[in-house]
Amino acid sequence: MRNLKSREIHLKSRPHGMPTHANFELAEVGVPEPKEGEALVRNIWMSVDPYMRGRMMDRQSYVPPFQIGEPLQGGAIGQVVAAGKGAKFAVGDYLNHMLGWREYAVVGPAAMPQKVDPKLAPVQSFLGALGMPGLTAYVGLFKIGAFKPGETVFVSAASGAVGAIVCQLAKAHDAYIVGSAGSDEKCQWLLKEAKIDKAINYKKEKDLNAAVGAAFPKGIDVYFENVGGAHLEAAINHMKIFGRLALCGMIEQYNNIAPAPGPNNLIMAVGKSLRLEGFIVSNHFDQLTAFQNEMGKLIAAGKMKWKETVFDGIEKAPDAFLSLFKGENFGKALVKVGPDKAV
Question: Is there a contact between 163 and 178 (Cβ–Cβ < 8 Å)?
Answer without folding.
Answer: no
